[in-house]
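Morning F.,

Quick status update on the modeling queue. The single chain you submitted on Monday has been processed. Sequence for confirmation:
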Amino acid sequence: MKLRNTTIQNLPDSVLVPTYDRSALTPGIVHIGVGNFHRAHQAWYLHRLMQEGKAQDWAIIGAGVRDYDSAQRSKLEAQDYLTTLIELDPSGTSAEVVGSMIDYVPIEDGNQPLIQQMTDPRIRIVSLTVTEGGYYLDPADKRFAPTHPDIAFDAQNPTTPKTAFGAIVAALKARRDAGSGPFTCMSCDNLPGNGRILKEVVIGLANLSDPDLARWIESNVSFPNSMVDCIVPATGPNELELVQQLGVDDMVPVTHENFRQWVIEDAFCAGRPAWEDVGATISDRVHDFEAMKLQLLNGGHQIVANPAEIVGISTISEAMEHRLIKRLFRKIALAEIAPHIETVPGCTPEQYVDLVDVRFSNPAIVDTVRRVAFDGSSRHTGALLPLIRLAASQNAPIDGLALSQALWARMCTGTRENGSSIEPNDPVWEQLMAVANEARQNPQAWLEQREFYGSLADDPNFSAKFALWLKQLHLEGVEATIVTYLNT
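Structure tokens below.
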């Protein structure tokens, strides 16, 4: 059955469908970056509210700023912006059609349709999932990089911007000038202090062309921090076949695990949906929740994926079946990461390690090692390197954390232990591969990538441990090196 408004009531009984009148929904949110994660997470929470007869005036308008977003828009438009979510659990598979998105802004150079949509007074939240690497931050200090060519372009051309942030600034200017009030800007990306970072980028960009506007934004616009969590694999042939087997003809289905978490700071200048009614956590301790998730789950993903890629394992659940990789993850997580993590309501760091272990080991989730290892230059610098800096400053154990960096460097040589090639998997892959191969003879060359490591390159203890692990990886291989660490 082709997925459309006119067909959802004819889908198999096993597929849950919207019970609300989608034609009566009105927009309240523009979301930039309509990938799988957004549709399995934020859109699902809103959909569940709508299923309870709430939030009917908070429907989502999708948006993007890159040419490749046009293909996504076309697919969603052809099925009335409906998405089939497939929950993958070892005990069984279930499906639900989510209908909280009602439109998708056309993608055009200069982003005029997006700017116009955000100036609609009904829009009270503009949210984003543009990946950790999409915020124009200096890799070394994670601060706004005003010299980036895209940012420089937007500063010179504020009415026809290239970036999402330029479009946000232009829309806020129009709303200020019209007296229609601000909207909340909400990041939903895996970044520590994502609201603070989004605020710095938006105000920093505005200040380059209009300091008065920057001051107005700082005084009137809110930027709540949030923490998001759900494992959502990429959609490929297997997922497309699975949704067909369930009786739904959906061009862009999304699979996900049977776990979600969303922790949100209650800082919304123009109101918000009652997300807490469907399981979100409203808390002023977002930082503690995100530190637990970012360092144990996102950091753990890198600890698992890098050795798995080197030895030729395809999925994260298969990596967790490996006789050594699971033990590597648990030892680093429990001995070197958890001691730096605060307990949050209902969960200790040790309990969270056990939860992550179960989630990574779910064989129903075909989450590829390649997807998880993608963009390590952002993911390592966001999830693991801040923790390594903290541990090094406290003279705390860092043997396994140093090994995690050596495994990343070894992976970036571009060759697996069986001799096969690792395809480019990072925006700066050519640089990483060149330095990784130089580091075979000179391990310090890897750490001299100051845009990632900064002063860590000068820490003699960390540098020495990193060098020893990298040399052993090249001489003896991944398994022997992990055994050495496990026996320390």
